Amino acid sequence: MTSTTEGERMDGSMAGVTPEQAAAILDSVPEDWPLVAAGEAQVADGRHVVLLEVEEATPEIRAWLAQQPPGAVHLTAVVRGAAGGTA
User: Left (φ > 0), alpha (ψ -120 to 50) or beta: where does 42 sit?
Assistant: First the structure.
């Protein structure tokens, strides 16, 4: 499952937020979430998108995602195999 708060803006430009906003969003991620990885990437015009990989997109995570600025977060739920690797 991959989800974003919004992919592209209506004017066709890429989504994203300022580097400061991205840092604040990352800081707001609770430590007890089932995170696989977290970081940020720079997109067009120097804007940043927060990248989150989680083991499961829980209702709590989905609610948090809905509160973020449009286009600020790219969320991926990672499916793990029986051996603990990604599938």
Answer: beta
CA distance from start to end of the chain? 13
Which CA distances in Å does 45 have to 1, 14, 18, 49, 75?
27, 8, 10, 12, 21
Kindly report the pTM of this predicted structure. 0.75
pLDDT range class, residue 6, cuts 50, 70, 90: very low
SS3 of residue 77 by DSSP: strand
- CA–CA separation, 20 vs 15, rounded Å? 15
Backbone angles phi, psi at 66, to 5 degrees: -65, -20
Rg (CA), the chain: 13
- Between CA 20 and CA 48 the distance in angstroms is 9
Give the pLDDT confidence score for residue 26 in this predicted structure: 96
How remote is the C-alpha of 25 from its chain's centroid?
9
